[in-house]
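Q: what sequence does this backbone want?
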């Protein structure tokens, strides 16, 4: 065990030294602010992929350095606008009313993987949503969504009706709308606080993607999954950059990032990582003693689909109020993801 620990420490030290060497060799280093736990896919895979892509696109002249804990999740957008960091990931649902058009991708009823949904989301943004200018003050460099969100609870849930009355951690946006429609009492805490919220019995469960079972250790505090095919909602995220930091790069480097990294290429890669996390968490759940998976019955699936119609209609009205052609945008996403 001592030898293994020593080897692990040596490898970690070598990786840090290599990263430091790359940063020193680069002409420009972007400071990334991130709020998820160190081992979460956001930090262990997504930001490394971002860094890899910008280094490759610029022949190593631009790199990035990751810093954790600079600010809580809801403060990340303003942090970037103020220039305290150069790039971050934001979850749109943390700031109610600020990112109305992001509800489009969060709606239930879409099929497809996180990769497919993230690519479709970027295309819908370019075609329909960008004009709403909800990210004014920063540059959006990727949009993405996690896989279908499921219900994770401390005690087994066998039916849709059993959700009514439960205290559930739900996000803002459509996730909150779904929780209310199901009759749950919503508890809003940022994702990094989910474990302690469940461990202290302050909530009966949480609605999050499969990936969270590994990323936030839900296998320990919410061993039971009630799975709705297609999910209860999808979360909306953006990678954003400080506009001045981007403008400070030479024209050739900035153009290389625009051509090879930003937009659909980065959105696709982040979606792939969400999918990988889902697959790993499903496997972890199946092999963890005491964990169970209950799939919603056909009757419950039909009931949820009917319930979703009101949620979708309300969200599209909100989106339309921003000046976006909400119906056309929704039809576009359904065509991209559902083939209709």
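A:
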């Amino acid at each position: 065990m001592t030898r293994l620990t020593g080897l692990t420490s040596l490898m970690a030290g070598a990786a840090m030294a290599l990263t430091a060497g790359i940063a020193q060799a680069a002409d420009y280093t972007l400071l990334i602010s991130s709020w998820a736990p160190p081992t979460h896919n956001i930090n262990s895979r997504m930001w490394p992929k971002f860094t890899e892509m910008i280094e490759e696109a610029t022949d190593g002249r631009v790199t990035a350095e990751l810093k954790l804990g600079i600010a809580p999740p809801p403060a990340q957008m303003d942090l970037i606008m103020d220039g305290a960091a150069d790039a971050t990931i934001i979850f749109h649902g943390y700031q109610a009313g600020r990112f109305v058009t992001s509800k489009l991708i969060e709606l239930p009823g879409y099929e497809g993987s996180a990769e497919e949904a993230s690519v479709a989301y970027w295309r819908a943004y370019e075609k329909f949503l960008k004009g709403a200018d909800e990210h004014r003050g920063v540059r959006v460099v990727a949009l993405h969504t996690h896989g279908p969100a499921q219900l994770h609870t401390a005690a087994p849930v066998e039916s849709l009706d059993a959700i009514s009355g439960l205290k559930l951690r739900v996000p803002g946006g459509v996730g909150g709308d779904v929780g209310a429609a199901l009759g749950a009492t919503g508890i809003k805490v940022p994702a990094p606080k989910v474990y302690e919220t469940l461990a202290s019995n302050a909530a009966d469960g949480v609605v999050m993607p499969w990936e969270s079972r590994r990323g936030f250790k839900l296998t320990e505090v919410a061993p039971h999954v009630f799975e709705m095919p297609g999910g209860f909602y999808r979360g909306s995220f953006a990678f954003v950059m400080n506009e001045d930091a981007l403008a400070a790069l030479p024209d050739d480097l900035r153009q290389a990032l625009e051509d090879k990294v930003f937009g659909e290429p980065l959105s696709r890669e982040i979606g792939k990582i969400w999918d990988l996390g889902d697959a790993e968490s499903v496997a972890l759940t199946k092999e963890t003693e005491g964990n169970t998976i209950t799939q919603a019955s056909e009757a419950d699936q039909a009931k949820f689909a009917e319930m979703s119609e009101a949620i979708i209609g309300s969200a599209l009205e909100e989106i339309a109020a921003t000046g976006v052609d909400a119906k056309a945008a929704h039809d576009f996403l359904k065509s991209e993801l559902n083939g209709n």
